Amino acid sequence: MDTNSNSKNDTGILLIGHGSRLPYNKEVISAIAEKYAQTKPDYNIEVGFMELAEPNIPTAFNKLKETGVNKIIVNPVFLAHGMHTKVDIPTILGLEPEVDLEKLHMHQHEHNHSHHHHHREAKSEPVDFDGEIIYLEPLGADDKIVEIISNKINSKLEKDSQDTGILLIGHGSNLPYNNEVIKTIAEKYIENSGDYPIETGFMQLSKPSIPEAFNKLKEKDLHLFHLSILSVVAIELTVTMFLTPYWLQTMYGIPFFASQFVRILKSCVMIPVGIIIVYTMNRMIQKVIR
User: Fold this and answer.
1) pTM of the entire predicted model
2) Which residues in the chain belong to E strands, given as ranges?
3) What is the C-alpha separation between 164 and 157, in angstroms, rounded?
4) Are 89 and 178 in contact (CB under 8 A)?
5) More confident residue, 21 or 269
6) How many beta carbons lie within 10 A of that of residue 99, not counting itself?
7) How would you classify the pairing of strands 71-76 and 132-135?
8) Which residues form the catalytic set?
9) How far apart are the C-alpha atoms of 71 and 69, rounded to whole Å?
């Protein structure tokens, strides 16, 4: 992408995406670059991809270099740091990796991490540049990112029923940064948007997995149902089977066990009805509170 090849500015900007065999990642990164270029028409802006898409990072970098710039700002358009942003991309740019791979490998071995990640072998020679390279942080749990995610979720909450849980899914990483960012986004969302049940899950390399987080959301609703059962059963048995016969015996001399059979039949009918009523009321109360 050559947004302004005749620029007189001595600074170039390189946006880096992950890349994918599918076209969507490239389309999004390219659209971001085009929108940004409209706000900075005097700068040369290129996009490059870590893998699986073209142009790759060295190709896009060298295209900027050929414009005569003496400074290149590199922004990884990733949500959070991971092995790509801490090791692979710095290595391609001729910068020092920010992670000690030997220590990381030893840590994984000690914890029996058998996940296979295929990005550690160099895919190209480091770029050759005599100017300055400014390497920026990924997007992170910025409030604007949280706002975008909140708007997407809230648009569905307005349309759907109250019986809604929220699952935020991250890619996962051998490094802690992705986990931390996803969890921070979840915390900020809860602060701004109420107390809907919310969990975080990861595609790979991190815990909890997506099924684990999904099932945890299911269990929260099941827990409410169990509480409804316990409360109704406890009240029905206490009032119908004990307090009422005791009161009738005390006030009118009716034997305690005289009407127990009828009361058992009554409880068999009233307990299921009570559970449905209490569970429904609990859900309505939760909706009002939120």
Assistant:
1) 0.70
2) 11-17, 44-49, 71-76, 132-135, 166-170, 198-202
3) 7
4) no
5) 21
6) 16
7) parallel
8) 18
9) 6
